[in-house]
Design brief:
Layout lengths: L10 H11 L30 E8 L9 E3 L2 H11 L6 H4 L16 E3 L7 H5 L3 E8 L7 H6 L11 H10 L9 H9 L10 E3 L15 E2 L19 H12 L5 H25 L12 H14 L1 H4 L3 E8 L8 H26 L5 E7 L3 E6 L2 E4 L3 E6 L7 E3 L22 E2 H12 L6 H4 L17
Helix pairs in contact: 8-9, 10-12
Length: 464
């Protein structure tokens, strides 16, 4: 029995099906040509005359907040030791990395960066980095009493990797059709010379970059990946290559075949344009070797350098690193993750300074969720709220955003085992970045759908 309603094969439904079915990609796979079918719509809701870019750095697996931004004042540090002494970073090793904000935190609270994040300290001190305290997925402001009573709507499937990754990126659970980075792209894609280069994924396919009309363009850390047989002569024959391109791009009568050919033609053209643009995009900033996140961010920096050649005014990038699901081995694995993150972000900011765009490019971290304060042998379990960093010269830096959570198991700011109940929402986080990006107050709700539930919609960590 067919349980699906009949949908006429008109152009709109065909495009919607294709857009939701896949993302535009030129990433190579086992086959000579890896291309996802998708439709590229042209949004026209906003225009820009200057250049700005947002770079989401996603930490897959749920980063351990307590060993990233470490509580340092003696009272809080000693309280933390009660719950995770075997996992704790020695206080003496934190002393050189203590953060001294322009406005001190109340009650003598202090935080330090984890060792490995050393390159971020001078950025914070120079006012080029802000730290968000206890941000996470929410639908509306929620108290602990409301959480315990179940009297307010909550994000579905809390503490689930896939669903909370999706909720962070899209404000919806797994299966979402669009993410808030892609919805930013919807508003600005038509203002770019080539809409293809609006939402760019260097860290793999992510719902964050999928819009209602904007479609993510995936590249590798080395740039776009050409179709085998077109980049070099197929079977040693230029004639064979021309024939292959004609077969791939010629218009067809069948709707899906024709859509495939249309997307293939656009991909081939995009590869040619991007390869040419990147050939002239050089950097003298040293990026660390053997660091996959740094490789991704270096490609982002090169694409920013090539922005004029690409006709870009607004771009949204996504990079990522994994390994943060530290149920065990936290002490042995997490320090290396912090060093990878710190070295990569430090080099990327230096590259934006070299390019003269450090006020026009803002990078920010995100993750599935934080983890528990209470240790689980040599690791920590899935949590909720977490600490995050925003980096760039347009940041109102050397500051903490939000209220320091009380360090306690079952205390006023957590829902058990040190799982922080977020006091700041992803919607507020994203809306603040979107406002800086150029989204009008009336359009913010289309980007962050839960924002209407908050009286404070701009957290103030970005300059006007």
């Amino acid at each position: 029995m067919n349980h699906f309603p009949h949908v006429p094969p008109d152009n709109a439904s065909r495009r919607a099906f294709l857009k939701r079915g896949a993302a535009l990609s030129v990433a190579a796979g086992a086959t000579p040509f890896a291309m996802s079918l998708a439709a590229m719509g042209e949004a026209a809701a906003a225009t820009a005359t200057d250049y700005k870019a947002l770079v989401c750095v996603f930490l897959y697996g749920g980063n351990d907040y307590a060993n990233t931004l470490v509580t340092y004042d003696p009272t809080s540090y000693n309280a933390m030791l009660q719950f995770r002494a075997p996992l704790a970073i020695a206080r003496d090793s934190l002393t050189p990395l203590v953060l001294n904000p322009t406005t001190a935190l109340p009650n003598g609270r202090q935080y330090a960066l984890a060792p490995g994040l050393d390159p971020l300290l001078p950025l914070f001190n120079a006012g080029q980095m802000s730290v968000l305290l206890n941000v996470g997925s929410l639908i509306q402001p929620t108290t602990k009493a409301q959480y315990q009573a179940g009297s307010v709507p909550l994000p579905p499937k809390l503490f689930s990797h896939n669903d909370q990754q999706s909720f962070w990126q899209s404000s919806s659970p797994e299966g979402a059709a669009s993410g808030w980075g892609g919805r930013l792209g919807d508003l600005f894609a038509s203002g770019n010379g080539n809409a293809t280069f609006t939402c760019i994924g260097v860290g793999g396919n992510a719902v964050y970059l999928s819009g209602h009309s904007a479609v993510q363009y995936q590249v590798s850390s080395g740039g776009s990946v050409a179709v085998n047989g077109l980049q070099t002569p197929l079977f040693g024959s230029a004639s064979c290559s021309r024939t292959l391109q004609q077969l791939m791009t010629s218009s067809r009568v069948h709707l899906f075949e024709n859509e495939y050919a249309r997307v293939a033609a656009r991909s081939i053209a995009a590869n040619s344009q991007l390869s040419s643009a990147l050939a002239g995009a050089t950097l003298s900033t040293p990026f660390p070797s053997g660091n996959s996140l740094a490789d991704q961010l270096k490609l982002v920096a090169r694409m920013v350098a090539a922005r004029s050649s690409l006709g870009a005014k607004r771009q949204v990038f996504f990079v990522s690193m994994g390994g943060f699901d530290t149920h065990d081995g936290l002490v042995s694995q997490h320090p290396a993750l912090m060093k990878t993150l710190g070295d990569a972000l430090g080099a990327f900011h230096q590259a934006t300074v070299e390019l003269g765009v450090s006020r026009q490019v803002t990078a920010f971290t995100a993750s599935d969720f934080g983890r528990t304060l209470v240790g689980n042998n040599d690791g920590s379990d899935h949590g909720w709220g977490s600490m995050h960093f925003v980096v760039g010269d347009a940041v109102n830096g050397r500051s903490f955003v939000g209220t320091p959570p009380v360090v306690a198991n079952g205390g006023p700011d957590d829902v058990g085992q040190g799982r922080l109940l977020p006091s700041l929402s992803v919607d507020q986080y994203g809306a603040t970045l979107a406002s800086w990006f150029g989204v009008s107050a009336t359009d913010l709700a289309s980007v962050m759908p839960n924002l209407a539930n908050y009286s404070t919609r701009n957290l103030g960590f970005m300059a006007a």
